[in-house]
Amino acid sequence: MLTTESLGWNGLQALKSRLSGRLARFTRNRIPDSRPNKLQNDAAFFEGDLRHIFTITPMVFDVPEHDYYYMDQMAHDLLGSLNEMVSRNLIEPLEGLYNQESKSPESGPFMGSYTPPHDIAALGDKYPGLSALFGFLDTSPDQFNLTTGPGSLLFTLPQGEAGSIAMERVTKWKTFLEQFAADTQKSQGIQLISLRQPEYSAKELTQDQTDLRQKRASVVVDAIFKEFRQHNCGKAHEIKLRVSDEWQTGPCQTALDMFVSSCPDENVWQEAKCGSFQVTIDAAERDSICAAIERARERGRKLYAFIDQRGLFDISDKMPPILSSLDKFSAESLGNLLDQKAFSRITPRDYLEGASQEKFGSREKAALALALARCLMDFFDEDLELASYSWKPESIFFIRSSGAHASSRVPYISLRPKSSGPQSPDLLKTVGPGNPVLLSFARLLLEIDNGEQIPMEIHPESNANVTKWGEMCSFVNVAEREGSGNYLKAVEGCLYLHMSLPKSREQTTASANEVLRKVIYDKIVQHLELMVNPQSSKRKYRDSVSTLPLAKKLSIASPSDINSHEVLPGRAIKPSTKHTARPASRDKFEIAIVCALPLEYDAVSLLVDEFWDEDCDYYGRANGDPNTYTTGRIGKFDIVLVLLPNMGKVSAAGTSASLRSSYPGLKLMLVTGICGGVPHPEGEEELLLGDVVLSKCVVQYDLGRQYPDEFVMRDTVEDSLGRAPKNVRNLLAIFETNLGRDRLEKMAATHLQKIQNSPSRKRRGAKYQYPGAAQDKLFQSSYTHTHHISSQCLCARGHKNYVSICKEAKRLFCDELGCDNKHLIRRERLDAKLQLEREGRNKEAQAPSIFVGRIGSGDTVVKSGEDRDRIAKRHGVIAFEMEGAGVWDDVPCIVVKAVCDYADSHKNKIWQDFAAATAASTMKALLERYIQTDKPSST
User: Fold this and answer.
1) What is the pLDDT of residue 280?
2) Among the listed residues 46, 57, 113, 23, the one whose alpha carbon sits nearest the alpha carbon of residue 320
3) CA-CA distances (angstroms) from residue 189 to 61, 77, 560, 746, 842?
4) Are 838 and 930 in contact (CB under 8 A)?
5) Which residues form the DUF7580 domain (predicted)?
6) How many CB atoms lie within 10 A of CB 760?
7) Same domain, yes or no: 284 and 357
8) Which of 134, 253, 522, 684 is the most exposed place for a label (fewest CB within 10 A)?
């Protein structure tokens, strides 16, 4: 059964549609210098869950009949709680409005002869509070929070049992949507009726013909213009298409948001969503697109149009009704914004005068250029006025809600049918020097980056543009002398695209359209992707943005980009070409960095500023020392880096002793790498994967005596391994203060981004990227990693006295074993990171927190949640590792390790590389705060 048959489903869709683009940035409403109470925490959880629901809820899908009634009841339960939670101060003037059969003309803009949408009319009797809230939202242009944060709140979470019930209902609804999405994915996804794509229907895509190069929006747009031509209303219709990641990088069946000009008045626009939806369509319902637009305009509602090879179907009555809100939008063309200097370089004066908020930064400009380049790739071979119309600044628009911040601008491109003759039968022959589409797009890229319009008239015929093409090529060549970046390479891709076409055509049997889109992707789109997200590339080199002088017409970099880094491929990030004097001998080295795993060593090596052994080994080693060393400089310290031959404290102890014999001047040893974490340290905040722990002291938790009834550790921590030297204790004490910890975390986050942006060999890929909060899973300590869906395995049956885990289960992931997410432990910090990711603030989400405390060290890998909690509670440790105890007494030592798992049976290797990077980043940040001792005077 379709979800649209459910009043409860439609009610939640009505709320979602009215809040689209209306929610303020999610911010906890904290009282300064105080901890939030339970009600405040619950309100934050409720807000996060409700926002998440709005992002994952599809417009419509098919639900099995046995699940339909359960879904409908859950939806009504949640609506009931929300109805009681609506903020009274917002709705009191409007409550009961839509239950009245008649309205007086004096009653305000909602009333008079206005007929409310049927979603409000249907909900009014059962949920009067929500009905009044919908009326309020339909007229208010403001932005809101839901249950927490500054400003106006739409709902108030009640205390006591009512609040608990509301929390339970929103959680159940979220779980239902997530579970249904997971089940759907396993069964090959929801089957949508979609347009045929002739170029791809005859054969499968090859390895290098990725989804991103398929025709997407152009399929729907072409069908709409075909409908207009068939009905021949006598008007030249235009479409303003929203440029969105949803259709550019999402599923091919994504419906498109747009504004369509109506008839008879071409200046009147109708808001519409067109494409594929899962609805039941009767061929007899096929309708004229002009009639559908007029009908939606008369009702004051958004038009929903289903389009397939049979034609267009107005399905607005089958979808949740959404009021058209054209009067609440303001539009500016790219040409207007260029004239207003909104794309010019942001200067210090702009910051001081507050004008920078209205300007586009370098990353925003690159993101816009990328989005338009994907449009170029999609529409290049369509019968549209892309050369003479759409790639001019006057036909790219930015639309935002009236009164909304400049950052809320959404780009649209204007599309019209081509008025000239038919398209050339040989598409590839039209691509040459002076091609109007590519030349106009190259000009557009330069205008976006430069911040001003370029007075260059482009003729529809390529031959008439050859001189202008040569002038633009010359300008780009001059600009590249100052430094070449990926943005300029994308401009070059437009100008020299024809040089790549013959080679590509000979290497494939694909159609001309496919060849062209592939080359556009390789020569234009991919370079802009590197600008927006350098980590997405598997190339060996790092994107180095061109930083041209302010006097030049083309300016690629923002002020923050000016100090670009020179990079040593595959090794270290060098912030300066200035070299420090190399130490004269081994006894001049003060810092040793010890790693147990190659992945830990690799991460540290990326933060070495200068290597002393780049050409050869200058320092050697002492007699009898089997270690192999790497020497270099991190900041002001000369360091020696060593990789252990094996994990464990025995290997660490032997390496440490030899290290001390070869480098007698060492004053500090940093054991850097990955560890297992205690998720809820006693008296501490939540510890998440990727967070870093610093050793205040080390506990040998497996050193002691085994009695018949218990294991007793031999001695206390300090007596067993000794106290850290006073200078180390003083340094760690600073990191336990808010100021010291904040500074350390800020610098660590900066170094982490350097590692992620560093060049990597193809085989490494993007291994240091943040895996995402959704991959951070903490199960209840008693819930074991066994087969939960295989009845034939012994470990799936369990036993009341013991737990048996088969060998196969130990090497499989939780999803493969059927580990149930209902046993996951919910954590406030994790929810906050998820929200940051939804808002696109990944750099903030990935930033690690740093903890100082006791670390457990032993030769046993802890892979049991119950044993982890028992040891942690008994000895007060916050993490487990295997090398610290082996080096603690040789040289003053700090263990700097990042959490890659929770030391339970569910541990895997997903987080290891990222954790190694956060540990290395914290290690370097720590060295920057470590005070160097004055060297003795030589006189």
Assistant:
1) 63
2) 57
3) 11, 28, 43, 42, 28
4) no
5) 209-534
6) 24
7) no
8) 684
**Sequence-separated (6 or more) residues with CB below 8 Å from residue 865:** 779, 780, 781, 782, 783, 902, 903, 904, 905, 906
Q: Is residue 822 part of a domain?
A: no
Please give the residue range of the domain that contains residue 611: 586-772+846-929
Q: How many domains would you assign to the chain?
A: 4
The phi and psi torsions of 11 (rounded to 5 degrees) equal: -65, -45
Residue 676 scores a pLDDT above 70: yes
CA angle 714, 720, 722 (to 5 degrees): 170
SS (H, E, C) 754-801: HHHHCCCCCCCCCCCCCCCHHHCCCECCCCCCCCCCCCCCHHHHCCCC
Q: CA 215, CA 362: separation in Å to the nearest integer?
A: 28
Answer yes or no: is 599 within a domain: yes
Strand order in 396-401's β-sheet? 311-314, 303-308, 269-275, 256-261, 239-242, 410-415, 396-401, 329-333
- Give the Cα separation of 446 and 145 in Å (integer): 39
Q: Are 241 and 216 in contact (CB under 8 A)?
A: no
User: What value does the mean pLDDT take over residues 174-186?
Assistant: 71
Among 934, 935, 930, which residue's Cα sits nearest to residue 635?
930
Q: Is residue 710 part of a domain?
A: yes
Q: Are residues 318 and 347 in the same domain?
A: no
CA gap 235, 248 in Å, rounded: 29
CA distance 859 to 881: 8
Return the bridge partners of 312, or none: 307
Lowest-pLDDT range of 348-362, 500-514, 736-750, 827-841: 500-514
Contact 847, 741 (CB under 8 A): no
In contact, 417 and 384? CB cutoff 8 Å? yes
Same domain, 760 and 720: yes
**Residue 2 forms part of a structural domain:** no
What the block records as the tokens of 658 is 């030899």
Does 59 lie in the same domain as 143?
Answer: yes
- Summarised one tens digit per residue, pLDDT across range 566-601 is 333 333 333 334 456 788 899 999 999 999 999 999
232 plus 336 within the same structural domain: no
| pLDDT tens string 201-242 | 223 333 333 444 566 778 788 888 888 888 777 777 888 888
Contact criterion met (CB below 8 Å) for 569 and 524: no
Rounded-to-integer distance, Cα 393 and Cα 342, Å? 13
Question: Interhelix angle for 160-186 vs 38-56, to 10°?
Answer: 30
Task: For strands 668-677 and 591-595, give the pairing.
Answer: parallel
